[in-house]
Amino acid sequence: MKAVHFGAGNIGRGFVGLILHRAGYEVVFADVNASLIDALAAADSYVVHEVGEQGSTETVTGFRAINSATHEEAVVAEIATADVVTCAVGPTVLRFIAPVIARGLAARSSALPPVTVMACENAINATDALKAEITSALVPDVSALSRAVFANTAVDRIVPNQAPDAGLDVTVEDFFEWAIESGPFDAAVPDIPDAHFVPDLAPYIERKLFTVNTGHATLAYAAWVEGASTLSEALAVPSVFAAVKGVLQETKALLVAKHEFDPATQEAYLEKNLIRFANPYLTDTPERVGRQPLRKLSRHERFIGPAAELAERGLPFTALLTAVADALRFDPASDPQSAELATLLGTLSAEEFTAQVTGLEESHPLFPHVVSTVAAVQSAR
Ligand SMILES: NC(=O)c1ccc[n+]([C@@H]2O[C@H](COP(=O)([O-])OP(=O)(O)OC[C@H]3O[C@@H](n4cnc5c(N)ncnc54)[C@H](O)[C@@H]3O)[C@@H](O)[C@H]2O)c1
Ligand SMILES: O=P(O)(O)OC[C@@H](O)[C@@H](O)[C@H](O)[C@H](O)CO
Fold first, then answer.
1. Check: complex ipTM more than 0.95
2. How, if at all, do strands 148-150 and 63-67 pair?
3. Record-annotated residues binding NAD(+) (predicted)?
4. What is the value of pTM for the model shown?
5. Was 122 annotated as part of a binding site?
6. What CA–CA distance (Å, rounded) separates 296 from 300?
7. Nearest ligand for residue 15 CA
8. Known binder of ligand: residue 3?
9. Residues framing ligand 2 (Cβ under 6 A)
10. Residue 304: which pLDDT band, with cuts at 50, 70 and 90?
11. Looking at the domain 2-200, which fold is it?
12. SS in 3 state form for 17-34?
């Protein structure tokens, strides 16, 4: 079995590549980072260090690596004969890899079984977004779409940026979860024993994004405001801990009301995540977890997504607004989106900023609350 995986970064090597290798796939990594691809192509193996209470070490072998910027034809040929295509490149990069996948599908023999395509990004229904981009790339002849099965997934494992001297090895937390929707598969689901296949992915992806990622981003932005250099250091500050716990209680209320999760089970889930965020064996930073604040402040993302639904249901969302206020203060020099955010804050009215950045409609019950939050941050600058 062969898998082509776009994005040989933290989650690519430390999660998707590892799990597919364990499942018996030969993994072909495709990435535009020349030094990373050269190192992978020259290596026989890399090591994944799983750290935490259940720490262990695992070696990944049997992979190949192709530079998709300079050797697109080779990636197209691999996709034409692959069993699985995955990606972990970031939601904003899907439109760049889609034309390559489209070409791979067009080159694929219709005699082969369809290839499974799964985007492993932190976004609701990222595979649907990838499929839409692939469709655009195939227009006007979209018949090659029938040579693929597209399945949405929810992936969860904290993989921080790696130490400069780590080489290809990756240090990851010991926890992971990979949920894949089963509906798109007619007969058999792909053979990935560490993944679980579920008929309805929505509760899983929303529980993950609105608990793990909402809490994580709240922690990152509060840590940045606090001047903390690591997330575990910030979480030890009582006011930061309270801010994170506050958003998790609000999103818990939404998840329980919307998906009928058992409240005690959801409480245990959020408590487990507080422990994950404080993992003393991992060094994770506000810069990584807060990266791309404009993406994180968008309509269906980890803050505005749940806050909007809470407002619609008449449930509290004040802790989420406080997290949004902290996000507006995120300004590391390394993050181009935070510079863009600062420019927008300085040039738009609070109403214009709210409409443009969050995508909320003026008539939405959350809109005036976000406007007030933005105005307060603007007047304090
Ligand atoms: N790191 C985590 O803890 C984690 C966990 C779950 C999900 N995710 C999601 O996985 C995705 C990747 O995150 P990451 O932390 O691994 O980031 P990363 O920056 O470590 O890796 C991304 C990789 O994609 C590559 N890339 C960029 N443009 C490309 C292109 N056009 N073609 C091929 N490769 C390209 C980059 O060179 C890089 O190696 C994001 O959507 C993230 O939200 C991350
Ligand atoms: O990858 P992002 O930028 O969407 O979010 C940053 C982190 O919250 C994220 O990478 C988590 O570590 C991951 O989602 C845990 O499963």
1. yes
2. unpaired
3. 3-14
4. 0.96
5. no
6. 9
7. 1
8. yes
9. 122, 156-158, 212-213, 216-217, 289, 291-292
10. very high
11. Rossmann fold (3.40.50)
12. HHHHHHCCCEEEEEECCH
**5: helix, strand or coil:** strand
pLDDT digits (tens, 9 = 90+) for 141-196: 999 999 999 999 999 999 999 999 999 999 999 999 999 999 999 878 999 999 99
Compute, in angstroms, the gap from residue 52 CA to the centroid of ligand 1.
Answer: 23
Q: What pLDDT, in 10s, does the model give residues 278-291? A: 999 999 999 999 99
- Which amino acid, 262? D
Ligand 2 centroid from CA 171, angstroms: 15
Ligand 2 atom nearest the C-alpha of 122 is: 4
> CATH assignment of 203-379, given 1.10.10.10, 3.30.450.20, 1.10.287.180, 1.10.1040.10?
1.10.1040.10
Question: Cα angle at 124 between 120 and 129, to 5 degrees?
Answer: 75
Q: Whose CA is nearest to atom 12 of ligand 2?
A: 158
